[in-house]
Amino acid sequence: MTVTTDPVALNQWVPCAWDGQIPVGGSLDTMIFGQPIHVQRTGEDSYRVAAVDGTTERELPVQVRYTCVFTTLGDTPRPLPEIAEFDEADRRITGCGNVGVNTSPYRLVENFLDMAHFAFIHTDVLGALDQTEVLAYRTEHRKEVDEIWAIDCTFYQPAASKAATGGQLTRYVYRVMSPFSVMLYKNVVTDPSRNDAICVFIQPKRETECLAYMPMAIVDEVSTVGDLIDFQQSIFLQDRVILENQRPALLPLDPTSELPTRADASSIAYRRWLKAMDIRFGILEKQAA
């Protein structure tokens, strides 16, 4: 078992459990970047997380936010992103657990950014086979927070959310907050002036083995918590089939390796951003000619 030495990856906050997964006094053994991790719930709202090397443990920093327990293996971690919607009192803050996926964490991010698959993978829910076009949108590198944003995204959806009662042209804003975290803002069905916030935080266990956590801060006074979780997990499980069959599983950053289309503008921006930060974990190195 090899633990990565990539400082860029190590200096990210990543989830290691979802809040409430472990009973008070209980513990969980897991892995991040090839490093065995021990997570212990020490109180109602407190956790202890440690990196385990044989019989030796090194205590790690902990943050409990967005329904997740986060930790970092680095000494100078990138800040955990601020998502204001999770602090709004009238929202349904829902953690949808996690789902294991055998692929690169970056493939997970790109799948989340990709609107082109909606009609074919999430037919009659997030897309329709007679309306498959991805309309032009814009990407930005917001240097003040070092994040990638995709704005002015629109796509027709027959059932955009659990609360939807019919089809609509859904407005999206995508936000890549770190190499291992991504979210979207989607207009609320019942209140067009507001946006739902839906996230994916990725725990990279190994280069091609991940856990994806799916917290949401949404405006929905009708659906039960169980309905919200079932809807989100059903969408993600449809994606998992595609993700685990993508080859190569590692992500190539050489622009000639995989040819993009206009619909892939957010993926292009994301890969350029990853290349500029010189991340190595989970990246397919260019083969010599």
Structure description:
- There is one protein chain.
- The protein has 289 residues and is an alpha+beta fold.
- The protein folds into two domains: 1-80, N-terminal domain of TfIIb (Single Sheet), CATH 2.20.25.680; 81-280, Naphthalene 1,2-dioxygenase Alpha Subunit, Chain A, domain 1 (Alpha-Beta Complex), CATH 3.90.380.
- Helix content is 17%, strand content 38%.
- The protein contains five helices and 16 strands.
- A seven-stranded antiparallel sheet has the order 8-14-13-12-11-10-9, covered by helices on one side. A four-stranded antiparallel sheet has the order 2-3-4-5, with no helix packed on it.
- Strand 12 (181-187) and strand 13 form a beta hairpin.
- It is globular.
- One of its GO terms (molecular function) is dioxygenase activity.
- This is Phenylpropionate dioxygenase-like ring-hydroxylating dioxygenase large terminal subunit.
- Keywords: Dioxygenase, Oxidoreductase.
- Residues 102-277 form the Vanillate O-demethylase oxygenase-like C-terminal catalytic domain.
What is the compact description of this entry?
The chain is of the alpha+beta class.
As a percent range, the share of helical residues equals 10-25%
What would you report as the Rg, rounded to the nearest angstrom? 19 Å
Total helical elements: 5
- How far apart are the first and last residues' alpha carbons, in Å? 30 Å
Q: Strand percentage, roughly?
A: 35-45%
Note the overall shape.
globular
- Report the oligomer: single chain
CATH architecture title of the largest domain: Alpha-Beta Complex
Which spans have pLDDT < 50 for at least 5 consecutive residues?
A: none
Largest sheet features: 7 strands, antiparallel
Q: How many domains make up the 3D coordinates?
A: 2
Strand adjacency order, main sheet = 8-14-13-12-11-10-9
- Average predicted confidence as pLDDT: 89
Order of helices and strands: HEEEEEEEEHHEEEEEEHEHE
Topology, number of strands: 16
Supply the CATH class of the largest domain.
Answer: Alpha Beta
CATH superfamily of the largest domain: Naphthalene 1,2-dioxygenase Alpha Subunit, Chain A, domain 1
CATH fold topology of the largest domain? Naphthalene 1,2-dioxygenase Alpha Subunit, Chain A, domain 1
Q: Which class best fits the helix and strand makeup? A: alpha+beta
